[in-house]
User: What shape does this take?
Amino acid sequence: MRSKIISTGSYLPEKILTNKDLEKIVDTSDEWITQRTGIRVRHIADKETTSDLAYKAALEAIDSANVDPLEIDAIIVATVTPDMPLPATALFVQEKLGAKNAFAFDINAACSGFMYALSIADSYIKNNLAKKILVIGAEVLTNMIDWQDRSTCVIFGDGAACVLLDATENEDEGILSMKLHSDGKYTDLMIVEAPGSYKPCSKDVIDNRDIYVKMKGNETFKMAVRHIVEVSKEVLGDVNMEFSDVDLMISHQANRRIIESVGRRAGLPAEKVVISIDKHANTAAASIPLALDWAHKNGEIKKGDILLLNSFGASLTWSAGIIKW
Ligand code: COA
Assistant: This one.
């Protein structure tokens, strides 16, 4: 038994913040942001919650596969920005969809969250614990951003995207292999210190701006390129493939220069490297499924194509997967 993506869906909030808009908020420029990151716009959720975004992405995937919500066995939401600490965001998605027969939960692996969730769903399917599973990456990151910090506020955005997995007996399609890694030595590379058991909610943590993302961008950048290339080689090796077998690489959209650097080291031509960061910025767990959905809707993925998915996130998580479409 293998798991196969039978449909995709996505949702980006209507409100857009351009690089020019950001020039009025912090000391930055459209030119710097475009050249250093590849980002042109980011979407802002305003009053919508993470589960609102996740629901809309999931609904599109369900509708396009012509599946009844009652057929959904499980819903996994990967997010670092849940609606609230308790209950899980996935339960709000379940209720909004009317997917009464599903079990639902969230996972947090930062920007690798979607990949970790995909691997969990893949295992459920292989072990016959569930068949139709919604794997969603959804984030409202713009509430967690320090709008006074130009090194972080220009790179993040809100959004959600989803894949619907189903079981297939065809051994020649679907998720062929996945590799996951993490390293707790580098938790300070990208961190939001509060509120949590480490620093419970208080006026102090708000005054100290501990509720916002702090990131060592440059160090993270270098580690990202190295780890993504290594884990990609590892997962390709698992299925006796090489970079030359890859039809399309879909990476976490953190920075256009990271993705291009990985593409160059892999020897992949530009047309085999999906870039969607210009349209939605870094949306953490939502970014790989957003890029996948964008490529799918754009007709860039054909039946039988070999897709290489890879991720890198705080701090540190990294992963890769091979899918035969
Ligand atoms: N506008 C203008 N200048 C800016 C700026 C902004 N928004 N942000 C930083 N700068 C300045 C810095 O102050 C620095 O100035 P200085 O040379 O005078 O000191 C200069 O630009 C270079 O800063 P640096 O941090 O070295 O830039 P960079 O090329 O590494 O780009 C990131 C910064 C954040 C875009 C980049 O490091 C990155 O994308 N990192 C990885 C992010 C990531 O993958 N995160 C984890 C997964 S989500």
The chain has eleven helices and 14 strands.
